Amino acid sequence: MQKLAKRVLGLEDVILSWVISRGLRPQIKANVIVQKGEINSVADTLVLAKLAESAGLGEDDDPAGVMNQLMDEVRKCSNSQRV
């Protein structure tokens, strides 16, 4: 995508960074936006997105699924302690 965007004449890095961030998964995008002060170039946007992805953000886009999984684990732990 970055290569294609570079073909557009007069496209500024700010606009390119915005376009790239629009295509990110919600959790990764949120992490990149939070660190907006550290973004000075497209490369910075890509580095922050890669760091967020490597940290495991965006793996499960369904927050309800994550919450259900956590609740199941809590129930298992509480049931095992009762026995």
Account of the protein in words:
The protein has one domain. It is built from 5 helices and no strands. The longest helix has 20 residues.
Structural class: mainly alpha
Q: What is the count of β-strands?
A: 0
Shape: elongated
The number of domains is: 1
Quick structural overview:
With 83 residues, this protein is mostly helical.
Give structural attributes:
83 residues
Helices and strands in order:
Elements: H1 2-6, H2 13-22, H3 26-34, H4 42-54, H5 63-82
Helix pairs in contact: 2-4, 3-4
